[in-house]
Amino acid sequence: MKLLIINPNISHDVTALIESEALRSAAPDTELVVRTAGHGVEYIETRFESLIAAGAVAEVIAEYTADAASSTISDGASRGDRIDGVVVAAFGDPGMPALKELTDVPVIGITEAALCAAALQGHRFSIIAISDRIKPWYLDCVERFGLGGRLASIRSINESLNGIGSVQHDFKETLLALSRQAVTEDDADVVILAGAPLAGLARELRGQIPVPVVDGISAGIRMAEAVVGLQSGPHRAGAFAPPPVKARNGLSENLDAAMAAAQSAHAASQL
């Protein structure tokens, strides 16, 4: 199995955290291809920043899913080297669920994976976030998944960050205190440490928080492996079928080819 893991922000420090936790979480026979967004912002806190990131993620997916006859992948790999699933590795799942329409392989966001993992382990869950500004967007995401009634709280760091790659190091004690408060004051059965900058911290805090603690990256990898393993088949109809054929202009070569390939597969399935 080969998974494409995409960091939707432009921070290579965060990509390194993602890759480290993904490698620890993946099954021994799972191959990981880890990529960083080609454009965007240092880290994503708002709906608009998520909108920008979604386009960057779509471009990376398109490189690996467009028709093999089109241009080569930017890192030199062959398009014939197909991936089996995609993990969008930013909490808030930029571009989801729309990205599921672009390719015939499963696309899993770390938010939906973390929420599913939390829902399986308890009734009420709390999200621990890296900033106050990010909380409205995260609340939107939880409600979109229909789990608003099970959200105990969203607690967050309310101090300026020194750097996105060092958040868990700089604020480890704060994050631990917020997690414990979510349990004792908000009655959370499960704590989610939200966001790729916190990747791996759940392992470090294991045993220090009296409820299950979910890491979004770890959940995303394991859920993606499970969904790929189910071999349920692609979307050829319904809400997540590929976009219909229509005139388009100004798209990158990769994205145009990926859309054409998705539409061609959809058309073939209707014969």
Walk me through the structure.
Mean pLDDT is 91; it is low at 67-80. It is built from nine helices and eight strands. The chain has helices at residues 12-25, 47-65, 110-121, 135-144, 167-170, 172-184, 201-205, 216-230, 253-269, and strands spanning 2-7, 31-36, 85-88, 107-109, 125-129, 151-156, 190-193, 213-215. 40% of the residues lie in helices and 14% in strands. The protein folds into two domains: 2-109 and 222-269, Rossmann fold, CATH 3.40.50.12500; 111-215, Rossmann fold, CATH 3.40.50.12500. By secondary structure, it is of the alpha/beta class.
Secondary structure elements and pairings:
Layout lengths: L1 E6 L4 H14 L5 E6 L10 H19 L19 E4 L18 E3 H12 L3 E5 L5 H10 L6 E6 L10 H4 L1 H13 L5 E4 L7 H5 L7 E3 H15 L22 H17 L2
Parallel strand pairs: 1-2, 1-3, 3-4, 5-6, 5-7, 7-8
Helix pairs in contact: 1-8, 2-9, 3-8
Quick recap of the structure?
With 271 residues, the protein is an alpha/beta fold. 40% of the residues lie in helices and 14% in strands.
